[in-house]
Amino acid sequence: MNFLKIPNKKGDKLVFYRDFGRGKGQRVSIGVFIFRHPKNQTERNHSKEMLAVIELKKSQLTIEMQAVGTGFIPKHKFKANLIDYFEEYVKLNRRKGNRHLENSLKQFRAFVETDFIAPVDISYNFCKRFRQYLLDKYTGETPGNYYARFKWVLNAATRDGYYRINPTESIVSKSNPSARLKEFLEVEEYIELLKTPCLNREVQEAFILSCYTGLRWVDVKKLQWKDITGSVLVTRIIQQKTGFPVTLTLHPIARAILRQRENQFRAMKVFDEAGTVFHLPTADGCNKELAKWISSTTIKKHITWSGARLSFSILLKDKNVDDATIAYLLGHTTTEQVQKTYKRHRPKNQTATIGMLPSPELDPYFLRFDN
Fold it and tell me: What is the pLDDT of residue 71?
């Protein structure tokens, strides 16, 4: 393995490059330099230590080249800290609009409560405890999604030679159905909210926008003016199948809210294409303001911000919109979530529903009673 020493522009340092040839891009800097003419002991020590690093790198690269095709993995290719491996995996595999992988790492850090954990410490029982930690902390599909991403990381680590048998192999991801069904808004409750003032105008308009677009709180909070073109909103949700963002045609109510806000921003000369449409408090703060607003109406339900997305799906379904279309509008690649999560659990009017069953004009003979 040949390394080149090339002077920098000032000529006071020698920068080291890996030499793969004389073509464009075939000399790759390894990020190491020495002083050409050291002026003091500090610079002499630096150069001496960097030359030792160069020799180590040469040795490692030589081993890597000779190991190709043998199945042998050099020890220096392994990370002593699994958190470092996890972080690198997230960096290389994150997808725009999907936070499951990053949040899985965040929860893994919270679970281990340390900045260092050796791969050898990740055992079958450790993985079961981590899964239970997620199930105790979250409801719905969240614990299953986070643990599934953790399984991805351990599967990759196993393929990279960290494990002979994947510790998570027989520990499946599990969801945690909430004992309490989420409540949602009916058509008449939409109308009542539109007519009822809210002390926090930002929360009011942002929540109504969610009701008419199905956007999550986090998506509304990050919404920028450049995401809106006329009556079309380009969301930050990326469709996995196409690689393109989900686009929504705005309902007149949603369009009116955005047009009014834009006019206000322009009148105050603070409109910025790259600026956010709303200036919202935290998710918890928004839900508290929402609760106050709901309490001033006749709606006797526990409505949180996620209820807007659920309401959006259910009311479209009530109008016989097909599951595939609703799934697209919600940013899902399949209809599974629409059929399992974003659905009406009880009929709105049981009497009317039961009355749809067939009934003859006259009672059958066995139900006729003599007076």
Answer: 46
